[in-house]
Structure formats: structure tokens, C-alpha cells
Amino acid sequence: MNPLSTFQIIQKIPTVLPQAATILSLIFLQFSAPGAPVRPSGTIGYLQQLNEEDWILKAEALHYLSENKVPEALESILKITKDEKERSWIRSRALVAYCKIQNSQDIPQTLSTFASSSDPVLREGAAESAGLINGNKGVDISLKLTADKIKSVQLRALASYSRIMGEKAWPLAQEMTESLAEELIPLAVESLALIGNQEALERLKELTKSSTNKRALIESLSRSTNPKVLPVLLNLLENTSTDDANFAYVISALSKNNNEILSSSLKDLIRTGRDSALFVAARIITILFQDPDLGKELLSALTTTSAPETLEAVMIALGSKEMNPDSNTEFFITHLKNETPEIKILSIRCLSHCKEANLYTLLKETIKDDESGVSIAAINALMEAPLEDAPTGTLVSYLEDVLVSTDNVIRKAAFELLGHAGNADDFEPALAMLGEALSGTDTVRREAVAEALGSIAPDNGIANVARRQGYVSNWMVLGTFLNDKEHKAFANELEPEKGIDFEKTYPSTYVWALQGNQRRDGEKPIEREIGWSEASVNKTNGMLMMGPLLPPPGTFSIAYAVSDFNSEKDQDLFLSLDGDDAFKVWLNGEKISEQVAPYLHRQSCIASQGNIKIKLKKGKNRILVKSANIEHEWWVRARITDANNKPVELF
Question: How confident is the model at residue 303 (pLDDT cuts 50, 70, 90)?
Fold first, then answer.
């Protein structure tokens, strides 16, 4: 397979990956993959970076330009190799970069010069560069440097010699890698991986067990394209914790291999049956490539004694949309009853990827799980399920346990699901079950229930839900009368304030506002007749939206809203009012409130006054609201409660 791009690998990391694994999967995305496309904007910056004094910036530029084989960099890089004032290590890396980009059979004079230098750092650079010369022209230099007095130079040269000669380099490698200090093992490993015969691979396995420098081992192994090296990389991965950054480096090295070749090695790994092997294979499948055949191998290898983390990794792999999760439905269903909550949650998420699974049938008991996280995961999965799968008319009884749960989070999620998947057939059962919350003092619960009921309410249901919360729900409305930005007309007494007659019509005027709510200079108001009409609140939060109820325009306008209601006795209650932009309120002809919100252009300007103590008389009572609007939204709202903030239904 081609080395994966950052975007490709991000796409392949499922949302069900645990956080730690996700982070580790992303770490290796930062490294440039060989053969990655040249990015002109980046190239210009890195070409400039070659001239920096900071050796770290220079090294970074050399790495990028050589990996992307940017020919425009050759002249500048060659100049660095010849700069005797430059650090030896930078000159050495510059030579390697030059040979990589040049990709030629010609041996640069600098390479020969470095090979004969008294500086071991330069000789080591020459040793590595000799293997990058096309053909076998680098053989003589690399062979010469295998006899260098410095071990690191010898082994760099051996790697280049092995790259050129392949299996023919084994006799020399056998001798040179027989007894090594631990710090030299990674250098030797590259040679053995490049040779790739049976003897070399056996020696390679022995050496990797003796080295603790995993990062260097991984880098050395990744330079070989020999598929026989894959088991060694897989073994390293199996013995590396996911919390170790080296786990990500091995994954990155594996991504450079062909899918078919890697798949074959993974099958062999899975068939060992080791928990650690299954865990590693599942992670690779999740991150690098999805192969349903490998999924079958994973399922076959799992046992009842598999560790939870192994089971989790396998479920993540099998639950991917590209792994044909429908073929694993029974496996996921089985683990809905797992003892571990995290496994249950994973099962739910995996089932949500199964197109043929009816989640409402499968999760009927799971939504009632004792573990809140499991219950919430099940409810969230149902939010994504096809609406046609929801039980029509019986959704309330299906959700009964979670709708009345003592857990606020579960209850809120259940309300949202009811509002999302329910319909008008569910409204009356839901109102019967949840109506008590509407008349309670728990504001958060009341509003959540009201919103859910509002989502499934029939035409007359919205006002019913609002009324149960104590909102004035039925009104008579009249409008519009002409207003202005300074609310001058709002301050004046208009005809409806002198006496209410629902049969009467009133002359009124209006003007159309330009963009920015400016009137045309000299424009004369237009006259019309207006009359009273019945209206109900159109939101479960008690808002009476004036705009849709009145003739346009709603800008620079005044309207009236009247509600008549009966009280069984004389009583003291509390009235709360709000609206956009201004209001005056009368109760039984007595003005009890006036509020004007500061003007904000194209923003909500909400005026409000809460808990106004009112005295209702036995029998008929009347609330009159005068509402003014300049622009933007236009609404009024009134709510009556008792001294304990409990809603009072009077409407």
C-alpha cells in the first residue's frame, strides 16, 4: 500500500476509538511519508531554511527536501556539504540528502572526500550515502568503509553494502553482526533487514530482543521493503504499550507496506491466538486498512477468556462501517450483556453502524441499564436510528423508565429522543405521563418536557402545554398601529386602551421601512382598518409571536393582546412578563407594569418584569398588554404562579 496521507488516516480512525488510542494514532501523522507530494508553499520555506544559522532548522529543511526529492535544493545542499565552518553532522546529513535527491549513478566528489576524511562523522555520512547511488557504483566505497576503525561507520557502510548486494552481503554481515554492543544493534538491524535471507532474519530477531532502543530499531526496519521483516515489526508492536510513542512509530512504518502483504502477515499473527496479538492486529485494522476477511479471522480467534482491552480493540475494528458490521451483528448483540459497561457501550455504537439492525428492538432493555453511561449511549444511538423503526403510538411506554428516571442526564436525553422520534399519536400518552412536570417547580425539567411535547404536539397541543405551565395561552390580538424608534406612539393612549370592543374595527397607519429600518424622507403613512382576532401561543415556552398573527409590517409597530379568564375565588398570585421590545400591562383596568428595553440594532431587545404581585377577583378577570416593536423579533409572554412558583392554570 502507498504510505497513508494525514487526511486518509484521520478518516480511518473511528469515533469509537478510546481517547488514548486516538491520540497515539494521530501522533505519527506528523511525520512525512516517503513519496509524499511536493507542497510548493512548504518547499519555498524549507529552501529558505537551508540558509538559517540555526542547525535544527537546517536539519529539518534537509529532511523535508530529501524526502520530497526537491531538485531545486541540490545546489544549496551541495554548498552546505562543502562549508567547512558548518557542523560535521549537518554536512553529513546534507550529503545524504544530496544523494537521495540526485538519484544518480554518479558519485559526487564530496562523497569520496568524506569517505577519506579524518572526521568520523563525515565518514559515517559517506557510508550511508554510498548506498543511495544507483547501480552498484557505491560498492567500493561502502566496502572500504566496512573496515573503518569506528564501529558506527562500519555498520553504516554495511547497511549500504547490503542495500546494493542483497543476500550476497550475508557472509560479511554474519561476521560483523556476531557480537555487538547494545547501542550498535539498530545499525546492524538495517543491514540484516536489507539482506533478508533466513539466516539474516534469525540474527535480526535475536538482536531486536537484545535492544531497548525501539525507536532506532523501528527506523532501521522501516528502511527495508522486504515483507519478511513485517513479523519483526509486528512483534515489536505486540510488545509495545499503546501509551508508548513507539507504538505510533511502528504503525507508521507498517503503513508503507502493501495491503495484501501486510494482510498475510496479520493473518499469521492473529492465528497465534495470543491476546496481545489480537489486540495489535485489531488496532492495525482500525487505523491502517479495513479488511472484512481479517475481521473473520479476529472473530474466530477470540475466546471467552480474552481480556477486556482485547475485546474492546476487536469490537472497534469490527464496528467500522468499512468492515461490513452487519455480518457481525450477533457478536455485538451478545456483548450488550457484557459485565463491563465500556464493552456494552461499544456494542451499542457498533450496532449503530449495522444498517439492517433495528435498534429499537435490540436496545429495548439496554436503555434501562443500571449504568447511566450505557443507558445514555443507547438513547443516543436511537437518536441516529431510522425514524420508521420507532414504535408508532407506543414510544412513550417504550421510553417509560428513562422518561421518569431520577438521573437528570438520562431523563433529558429521553425527552430529546421523544421529541425527535415521536409523533402526534404519542402526544396524549406523553402528556399523561409527563404532565406533572409541567406544573412543577423544577424549571429545567419543566422546560425540557415542554420542548419534547412541543415537538410531537398536534395543532392544538402547543397551547395546552403552555397553559399547564401557567402561561397565558389564549389571546385576542389587534394590530398594527404606527410606532417610531423613540416609542412616541407607545407613550400615547390609543383607542383600544379606552375600552375593549372585540366587534369594533380601528383606523390605523403603517409605513414600510428601508434596509436598516430607516423611513423614506417625506413618506406618508398608509391607512387601513384593523380588527380583533383570536390567537393562541405558538411556542411551548409561552411566547405569543406577534409577527405571524398581524398584518405586515412588524417594524415600527404597536399591537394589543387581551386575555379573559375566571378565578374561582379572590386570591393573590404572581405575574411574570417579558417581551420584545416594550410593553404596558393592565389587570382589570389597572396598569400594573411598563417596561421598555434599550434599543439594539438587529438584536433582541427584551423587556421583562418578574413576580408582580396581583390580586385576582372571583369571577372574570382581564389582562391587557400593549406591545411595541421597532425591528427584529416581536413577542410577548405572561405567566401566573403562586407564592411557591408553582404554575396556576387559569386559561
Answer: confident
Task: Give the residue with greater pLDDT, 35 vs 270.
Answer: 270
CB of 208 closer than 8 Å to CB of 235:
yes
CATH of domain 468-641: 2.60.120
Please give the pLDDT value at position 277. 96
If you count DSSP H runs as helices and E runs as strands, how many of each does the chain have, helices first?
31, 12
d(CA 348, CA 337): 11
pLDDT band per the 50, 70, 90 thresholds, residue 314 = very high
Decide if 574 contacts 643 (C-beta within 8 A). Answer: yes
In the chain, what is the straight-line distance between the N-terminal and C-terminal CA atoms, in Å? 71
Domain ranges of the chain: 358-458, 468-641
Task: Kindly report, residue by residue over 522-581, the tens digit of the pLDDT.
Answer: 667 889 999 999 999 989 999 999 989 998 888 889 999 999 999 999 999 999 999 988
CA distances from 583 to 77, 97, 472, 562, 648 (A): 77, 77, 15, 13, 22
DSSP three-state, residue 278: helix
Question: Model-level pTM greater than 0.90?
Answer: no
Return d(Cα 309, Cα 199) in angstroms, integer.
Answer: 36
Cell 519555498 belongs to residue: 44
What is the per-residue pLDDT across 453-483, written as a single tens digit (0 to 9) for each?
Answer: 999 999 889 999 999 999 999 999 998 999 8
Please, is 191 exposed, middle or buried when counting C-beta atoms within 10 Å of its C-beta (0-12, 13-18, 19+)? buried
* Cα–Cα distance, 596 to 588 (Å, whole number): 22
C-alpha distances (whole Å) from 199 to each of 74, 157, 164, 171 are 39, 20, 18, 10
CB atoms near residue 8 (< 10 Å): 14
Q: Which cell numbers in the block locate residue 61?
A: 529543511
CB atoms within 10 A of CB 206: 12
| Higher per-residue pLDDT: 641 or 598 | 641
Dihedral angle sign, alpha carbons of residues 202, 208, 209, 211? positive
DSSP string, 78-107: HHHHH-TTS-HHHHHHHHHHHHHHH--SSP
For residue 104, the model assigns a pLDDT of 85
Number of Cβ within a 10 Å radius of residue 644: 7
Q: What percent of the chain has pLDDT over 70?
A: 92
Q: What sign does the dihedral 353-355-360-365 (CA atoms) show?
A: negative
Q: What is the pLDDT of residue 513?
A: 63
